[in-house]
Every structure is written in C-alpha cells, then in structure tokens.
Amino acid sequence: MPSLHPALSLLGILLLGIGLDRWFSPAYSAPVPPPLRIAAGAALMALSLALALWGFLTLRRAGTPLEPGQVPSRLVTEGPYRFTRNPLYLAQLLFLAGLGLAAFPWLLAGAFAQALLLRQFVIPGEERRIADHFGEAYGNYCRRVRRWL
C-alpha cells in the first residue's frame, strides 16, 4: 500500500479547499459567516493547536522521533496518547473543520477527505511499523486506546 506524507496531504487539502471556496464564492458575493459559526470554528482551531502542541511536547519529552514514518524509539502512551493513538492527526482534522466553519466551508469536506487519506495511506503503515517494533505491548495499547477517540 502506498504511503503518503500527512503534512503534504494537509497542505494539498488546505489549498484545494480555499481555492474551491474562492472559485465558487467570489469575495464580492460571499456572505460573511455568522459570528457563532466563526466563534465555533475559532474554538476548534484553538483546540486543535493545543492538542498538536501537547502531542508534540509529549513525543519530545519521550525522546522519540516526531517525523511521520519513523519508528518511535519508545512506545508513548501518556499525554494525549492516553485518549487517542493519533492526536496529531486528530488535531489536523479539527483544524480543517474549524477553518471550514470559520471561513472556508469547502474545508469541512476537506476534513473528511483528510481523514480518509490518513486512514487509508498513512496510519496502516505506521501501525505496522510500530507493531513490528513493539509487539504485544503495542497490541495491548491498541486494545485500550481507540485510533481516533
């Protein structure tokens, strides 16, 4: 199964979503989103940034690589990894959804597309590498902690 770098797919979806929004809703005719929608989107984006920072700091404290595709030097099960096996990818999805709510509605569909890309082309390879490296410890972790939430 081919692999995909999650940052590249995120960037592609951001550019495509913003482009589609601009193409189908030119600035001169696009309505301003209601304040509640902007606030909800901003809250999701803030949550996503906090989750991403927490995840990065947890990996850094554990002394394990941050780059996707590398085998971790340690099985990290603390911090946000107690609740989700993929907090950094979850943060990406929350960010896309928040930006979609606040400003670029096409990014709501982009969040679903990114989730599918991650599920199909990124996470399976990562899970195989981690399972090969950590064996039963990773299997036990997967039984306790869900992939997303």
List low-confidence stretches: none
Beta-strand level of the residues, as a percent range? under 5%
Mean pLDDT: 92
Structural class: mainly alpha
Distance between the termini: 25 Å
Tally the helices: what do you get? 5
Order of helices and strands: HHHHH
Instruction: Tell me the major beta sheet.
Output: none
Q: What is the share of helical residues?
A: 55-70%
Radius of gyration (Å): 17 Å
Structure description:
The chain has a domain at 35-64 and 74-144. The protein starts with 5 loop residues before the first helix and ends in a 5-residue tail after the last helix. The relative contact order is 0.19. It is elongated. It contains 5 helices and no strands. Helix content is 68%, strand content 0%. Helix 2 runs antiparallel to helix 3 (87-102) and helix 3 packs antiparallel against helix 4. With 149 residues, it is mostly helical.
How is the secondary structure organized here?
Blueprint: H1 6-24, H2 35-62, H3 87-102, H4 106-134, H5 136-144
Q: Would you summarize the structure shown here?
A:
The protein has five helices and no strands. The protein has 149 residues and is mainly alpha-helical.
Descriptive terms for the model:
149 residues, 68% helix
